[in-house]
Amino acid sequence: MTDVPCLQHAFSMTPARALHLAIIPDGNRRWARERTLLPWKGHEKSGETFDRLVEWCRADGRIGVLTFWCFSTENWKRDPKEVAKLMELLEQSIRSKREKLIKNRIHLIRSGRTDRISPSLLEGLNELDRATATDPAMTLHLALDYGGKDEVTRAIWKLRDPTTATEDDIAAHLDHPELPPIDLIIRTSGEQRTSNFFLWQSAYAEWVFPPKYFPDFGPEDLKAAIDDFEGRKRRFGA
């Protein structure tokens, strides 16, 4: 994981009042199943959708941080063949995106556990973090082997004395405490659950649950969701 000062610089370079957008890309396997394809074919198509959305966010200018859930702490329960293929696709994607991310000034960082993903994938992510850290215009934040409860638990483990900890103390020990709270979360496929996704950072996030499976979710759908969000009045409990 990159040192915090570098990441603070990364966010400071994002546009003023930029949004922290998060996406739960649900429906990949159902998309494949309805087309009588193997499950990972949905993940392959999802990768293409992901690329289009990242490019759109970078060009639109309203997004400072894009958080994307790649793999949850619970996803290890899936078929080992599917998990292995998904990890293979992730590693291939990381290698292929290096030059484009550098060119577009997109800083890639990650959250989640580090002890269960392959050393080669972890090193690829860390190398890309270092390679894209200079003068970023947007932050791409990947959640890999990530769960909200797990992140908060790991943060508490890091505390010197949990019995006297404040909210600020816990927040300071999250995976990326320098990132702003999440403003908008989009979960595709029509499922309306939070599913242990960034529980701390999403405390006051707005949610959108579009019915489309993620492989069919395009930039026009993303724009509609953000436009809707900008029309909402956020009170933060007031």
Can you tag this structure with a few keywords?
43% helix; disordered N terminus; 8 helices; 238 residues
What's a quick, concise take on this entry?
This protein has 238 residues and is of the alpha/beta class.
Return the average pLDDT rounded to an integer.
Answer: 92
What class do helices, strands and sheet pairing give? Answer: alpha/beta
Please tell me the CATH architecture by its name.
Answer: 3-Layer(aba) Sandwich
Count helical runs. 8
**Quaternary structure type:** single chain
What topology, given as strand order, has the largest sheet? 3-4-2-1-5-6
As a whole number of angstroms, the C-alpha radius of gyration is 17 Å
For the record, give the distance between the C-alpha atoms at the N and C termini, rounded to a whole number.
Answer: 36 Å
The helix fraction, in percent, is: 40-55%
Sequence stretches where pLDDT stays below 50 over 5 or more residues: 1-16
Q: Can you tell me the CATH topology?
A: Undecaprenyl pyrophosphate synthetase
| Main sheet specs | 6 strands, parallel
CATH superfamily: Decaprenyl diphosphate synthase-like
Query: Total domains, how many?
Result: 1
Strand content: 15-25%
What is the class in the CATH system? Answer: Alpha Beta
* Strand element count: 6
Principal-axes shape call:
globular
